[in-house]
């Protein structure tokens, strides 16, 4: 199976046999890969009932729920790893969601589209309109992406909250363009990013 | 009640007396059951299905009492979501019922029907009887237990009290606790039965059964199984076989005619005292209370059991919120749990009806 670039990166770094919660797991592609490749005990949360039904019919353990509310139901430290892929920008309260993620998971992987990617900047500069891209499709009035952020914003937020970054990877058009805590120009060169976080 | 005495129900008698939650014992318990599909040589492919309040052991095929298809014919059979080409499906009539298993209409120690001398039973007692039945059948571990509504209560009770007996638990349109509203509807039904002069304190066997009371009980319960939207779509305010309102109390409206039919036809196949006892068992059901007040504690022993819980968006009898409490408790003990709220227009009865998404979930989970 071909995983999306950010998911493949996350899958590669999740420890063997970890207990994993994938928040916004969709039909469970990443969960299945983690179970097969890493022997993980993977659980999922997904808001779309049809996606949940498909994941369950694949034999995965997925709970239909709204991450904005239902993550509070999990006990502290219930998982070794909590994953939030391409979902942060859709959260009602991204700060609350990240707190919950780092509460239920001992560590977390978070991936998101970078609004400061140069093509986005250029789109806004040239057209004077909200950019539409592969990672951020849909017009401003109908998009699920309600909290746009940049890599620089995310770094600042993590510093404010005292969250430790133990890994970061940057991508443009599904190619990795750099990794580490602060590669030069990531904030304008990266289309999307993956962060590995600890409290 | 229908003359079921001519039907030779397949059944077994439990060796030991059944110790009940009430503190009483029930000796010589008969458990009527049906099976579908072959039991594998390693005995590892058995699936136990628990039936609902007025259900029976005839899941698939033709029900010999009603002559109609089994109540979950759409779900169970060769090539169906619970595939009897692969699984050995067992379904037993619950104790307290009236289709071959020991209940208030069965002969008690004095040779005449127990009637109200039958002990009050619980959901856990029903499960105990079925676990004893499995012992008698030589089946130690089930591939899965499956149930909707009261069947789902038994499935959850089985997970809580006999977690070693099953690898998987599939509970549909159910709850871990009867609410005040649930109890209220049942009490209304019971009072309708008891208010029927034919009820005679329960000693009506051999005479006229309290059919009118039982029919009213069934009518009231039936409303709780449907959604307002479902009733509106099916009947609206349409009149029954007439052009105008009669200014009387005949069944002017189609919905009245339908409910009267549902009530009356029910009395042909069900015993009023069984209805009293089984609704009582459901009202007493509170899985958390049974386990010291914390629902999560009920599932401590089941953390390696796979769970799948399903609710329906139009079910106001056992709601998604009720089911979420079970999900929450299972998360607390880190049991592998799946949960999905399916969209279907039929209210609580959706678990019995044409909901293709349910078929997919059941098939995928049972594996």
UniProtKB/TrEMBL annotation, chain A:
Domain of life of the native organism: Bacteria
Matches recorded under Pfam families: MetW
InterPro entries membership: Methionine_synth_MetW (IPR010743), SAM-dependent_MTases_sf (IPR029063)
Name of protein: Methionine biosynthesis protein MetW
Lineage, highest ranks first: Bacteria, Pseudomonadati, Pseudomonadota, Alphaproteobacteria, Sphingomonadales
Gene: metW
Automatic annotation (TrEMBL), chain B:
Positions with a binding annotation for substrate: 218, 349
Domain AB hydrolase-1 residues, every copy: 45-352
Entry's localization field: Cytoplasm
Broad EC category: transferase
Active site positions, chain numbering: 149, 315, 348
Molecular function terms from GO: homoserine O-acetyltransferase activity
Alphabetized UniProt keyword annotations: Acyltransferase, Amino-acid biosynthesis, Cytoplasm, Methionine biosynthesis, Transferase
Principal localisation: cytoplasm
Record-level GO cellular component terms: cytoplasm
Pfam families from the UniProt entry: Abhydrolase_1
Enzyme Commission (EC) number: 2.3.1.31
Pathway where this protein functions: Amino-acid biosynthesis; L-methionine biosynthesis via de novo pathway; O-acetyl-L-homoserine from L-homoserine: step 1/1
Function, as annotated: Transfers an acetyl group from acetyl-CoA to L-homoserine, forming acetyl-L-homoserine.
Family affiliation: Belongs to the AB hydrolase superfamily. MetX family.
Protein name listed in UniProt: Homoserine O-acetyltransferase
Gene: metXA
